[in-house]
Amino acid sequence: MSSAALFARAQQLIPGGVNSPVRAFRSVGGAPFFVKAARGATLTTADDVELIDFVCTWGPAIHGHNHPRIKAAIAAALESGTSFGTPNPYEVEMAELIVQFFPSIQKVRMCNSGTEATMSAIRLARGYTKRDKIIKFAGCYHGHSDSLLIKAGSGALTHGNPDSAGVPASFARETIVLPYNDPAALDAAFAANPGQIAGVIIEPYCGNVGFIMPDAGYLRYLREITAKHGTVLIFDEVMTGFRLAKGGVQELEGITPDLTTLGKIIGGGLPVGAFGGRADIMDHLAPVGPVYQAGTLSGNPLAMAAGIAALRLLEELNPYARLDALGGQLRDAVIAAAASKGMPVQVPQRGSMFSIFFNAAPVRDYATALQSDAKLFGRFFHGCLARGVYLAPSAYEAGFLSTAHEGSAIARACEVLTETIRDL
Ligand code: KE4
Predict the structure, then answer these.
(1) Is domain 68-316 given the CATH code 3.40.640.10 in the classification?
(2) What is the reported pTM?
(3) Ligand 1 interacting residues, C-beta cut-off 6 A
(4) Where exactly are the structural domains of the chain?
(5) What would the pLDDT profile of 298-347 be if each residue is shown by its tens digit?
(6) To the nearest 5 percent, what fractions of the chain are helix, strand and coil?
């Protein structure tokens, strides 16, 4: 059945025809394609079109799709069943791997999505500090829990406003939204809310507003001011963990957060999330402490087996330099193509993450990201898609590379990006 026919059926039964809004192509226009198979760097659509994939299922597929080692690990686990509802050996091995990769994590709890991980970390920070307020940053996305679907309020230093229908104003009042990369805003928020801020949650490198990296010293300042005020610093590394380095951004930047949230890669493509950090904080979690958190399928043996295989592959391959070279190839191709026609473009890239902003100014926060030409991005997106390259269907998402992109896939992709920019 074609994508169009599938989409028509899906829209009858699933809101917008999708199980996650970004997949609906609303911000780039057109109708989404359906995928029936994925392997390596390639997606095969329901219309038998092959696409070079730079979404990588939004991060998990760092080894490419359907990697034989991950597939074999799932198959082996499947022989013993799909879910036990009891502790299982895979969970222990996963916990040991996470703690090994992330020295800041002394104890870790598995869950089933990044949203669960960040929601639980926020509750834990509040339970540990007995404070209610949290700080998040404009442009950072941490999943769809009520406390985090909040946009900056009128007084950005006081409280936020709901960023979705269904979020009570009373919830929004406990979330302060600050601009990213703005140390003075941090000072002001802590001064305006003395002894009230339970936690600060940040994407240390932003991947949900396009790809934005912090100014030098910004994360260190954030670590200092949160330590000074007894506020729990939460690094949301659901996207960057295991992707930008084995130990994520905290390894690259040499910063030790109090809690870290993880997901995506640690499920090897199956549903997963995790949060962990200082043992004295984590031991406030049930059944040890008073902060409740739970999940029927948390630590699911199939997801653990897939994630363990993905992490073991990272240990063996240590692919980060190769991934950074691939990202650099893509970045250089886009910059050269845009320069040849005097088109302003920013291509922030680090390792296997990148984004393409049609913007004359460097993008350093939500406000500058919004000044990019999203309409032009939409035309660029569809031009690439028509030539067989699938970028994230939004001007405000990050792109992802995998080790499977090496060789012909990256070479073809660079040609396509170049041709598409030429014809814009
Ligand atoms: P999930 O609940 O979607 O597993 O994770 C939420 C989440 C938390 N933290 C960060 C840093 C994230 O990037 C995400 C989810 N990322 C989006 C990509 N923009 C998932 C794609 C989608 O919503 O379909």
Answers:
(1) yes
(2) 0.98
(3) 20, 22, 58, 113-115, 118, 141-143, 203, 207-208, 236, 238-239, 263, 397
(4) 3-62+320-423, 68-316
(5) 999 999 999 999 999 999 999 999 999 999 999 999 999 999 999 999 99
(6) 40, 15, 40
